[in-house]
Amino acid sequence: MEAPLEEKEPSPMDRSMPLPTLSPAVPTYVTLGLTVVYTVFYSLLFIFVYVQLWLVLRYRHKRFSYQTAFLSLCLLWSALRTVLFSFYFQNFVTANTLGPFPFWLLYCFPVCLQFFTLSLMNLYLAQVVFKAKSKYAPELLRYRLPLYLLFLFISLVFLVVNLVCALLVRMSSAEAHTIVLVRVAINDTLFVLCAVSLSVCLYKVAKMSLANIYLESKGTSVCQVTVIGAIVILLYSSRACYNLVVLGLSNKSISSFDYDWYNVSDQADLRSTLGDAGYIVFGVILFVWELLPTSLMVFFFRVRQPDLDRVSQRALTSASVYQPKGGRESSPGFTR
Description:
By secondary structure, the chain is mainly α.
């Protein structure tokens, strides 16, 4: 009869090695704390923009202007982001398995709203250039309407491309990576073009003294516009170039930045769930590439008190150097 096999006693080295286990990438309290921080940031921005819109009515500013249009877009954007992060308080899986339209509304549509705000910033600075040059070249005003129609068309293209591609990925059996690649290429190209256009407008405004007078009448200055515009251009261009390079070099997987900015809207189609570590990167990227540039532009379009406006108008009046004799009184913002 064979002797029974003796069980080998584990060596001290084996006893010191922990057994392989599965554990979350980060503790639960970390993701919960980050969710609270993200939600608070977007909620505070929502409240601030809401107060600004209320001040528009309180101070009887124009109800239909670049300021109110921009603030309304930011109000909707911050509301959608707050709702998105609120999902993570209740059901983490629900936020990653939404239906086609809720998915597009919470993940993709906020990116469209940001593109609309960038287009508005372009149109606003273009208007500053037109008004500053209209005193000496009134024929330039005829290009204003075509410019508005051009940016409206580009914004509609951006919106339709995002909506159609998102629905195709969620509702059809088409190759997700191909659709995402097309959408990212179109979206980021438009972002880069708008950033280049904004830089051209900033250059023209910085070179025109009358533009500085006009901006001072609105409670701001060329220096402030240039700094905010330069930061916005840098942030939007960097994220657009990053996504184009990463998605172009990737083979149906994004591993360099995990859940990066376009994972929020486009590359999220390539993933079914969002891991704990990815959730952290997801929030950081949103803060740097979404919350920061939007907050800067909200600060630029904030509502000024009427007292400040009156001081600016007095400064413009004192800045008048030349008035043609017997001629009609010039607009305070564009005296020679």
